[in-house]
Amino acid sequence: MSIPRNFQNNIADGLSEPKKKLLYYLKIMQQAGLEELANVMKISRMAVHKHLAALQKRGLVESVEIRGHVGRPRMLYQLTTRSKTLFPRSYSAIASYALDFIERNMGKESVQKVLHERQNEIVDQYYKRLKDLDFDKRVKELAKIRDEEGYMAESRKESKRGNGKYVLLEYNCPIIHIAEKHWEACLAGTELFEKLLDADIDTTHRAAKGDLVCRFAIKERKEGYL
User: Fold this and answer.
1) Cα separation of 111 and 64, whole Å?
2) Contacts of 95 (CB under 8 A, 6+ apart)
3) Per-residue pLDDT at 182 exceeds 60
4) Each residue of 85-139: pLDDT tens digit?
5) SS3 at position 130
6) Which of 8, 17, 20, 194 places its Cα 20 to 30 Å from the Cα of 44?
7) What average pLDDT score do residues 39-59 get?
8) 96-220 adopts what CATH topology?
9) Range in 4-13, 145-154, 171-180 with the lowest mean pLDDT
């Protein structure tokens, strides 16, 4: 998983690479303490604390106190609402406006038609990179493509029993403005994965529904590919 190329914007101007990496890790980890961040960053706790303090001053990170049943409260760090604008959003606000216009003037079916036509274009683009791969490699390559497109995606194999079950995780949703208003966009995305992977997809988490990650459980079908 790579830091999105269009991560930089006016808010991120002047941030050092370690600070950008901290924001990136917090996006994925959602909440983390100094020890965890020091481990993933491979720097000292003191260095992490210094970077976090600078990010807090800019309003990009906030700390929360978590109280357990025993022992001292634990301080965790997380992204603020303002920091969400740092991550790729494609042109979803404009696209959402266009889909709203289509729905008002042509109806819901026209919105579905537009989204499915777009899905067909994407299938052709993705298929060129997936067609010669076996199932395991297709899942990994699909995650790589989605990561390149700003979804901050990764795939994980769920079982060691060889039943072909994976999960695809997307920590960022560039089209969230669309998905929050038009659930068909999420449905089209799931159908896209099913077609490309020849797999059954169970969507267990959705950013558009308030989850912190989009999570797709993937199980291979044994029939022929496409």
Assistant:
1) 41
2) 175, 177, 178
3) yes
4) 676 665 555 566 667 777 787 777 787 777 777 777 788 889 989 989 999 999 9
5) helix
6) 8
7) 91
8) Muramoyl-pentapeptide Carboxypeptidase; domain 2 (3.30.1380)
9) 4-13
For 133-169, letters b (16+ CB in 10 Å) and e give: eebeebbbbbbbbbbebbbbbbbeeeeeeeebbbbbb
Sign of the alpha-carbon dihedral angle for 209, 11, 56, 76: positive
Structure tokens at 214: 């989009």
Report whether 170 contacts 152 (CB < 8 A).
yes
The reported pTM is 0.64
Q: 194: which 2 tokens?
A: 């099913």
How many other C-beta atoms are found inside a 10 Å radius of the C-beta of residue 39?
13
At 51 the pLDDT is 94
All CATH 1.10.10.10 domain ranges of the chain, comma separated, are: 5-86
Q: Is 123 exposed, middle or buried (0-12, 13-18, 19+ CB in 10 A)?
A: middle
Question: Which tokens is 107 given?
Answer: 């109806």
Q: How far is residue 172's CA from residue 192's CA, in Å, rounded to a whole number?
A: 18
Torsion angle in degrees (nearest 10) through CA of 93, 97, 102, 108: 70
Residue 192 CA to residue 2 CA, distance in Å, equals 23
Which overall architecture, per CATH, does domain 5-86 show? Answer: Orthogonal Bundle (1.10)
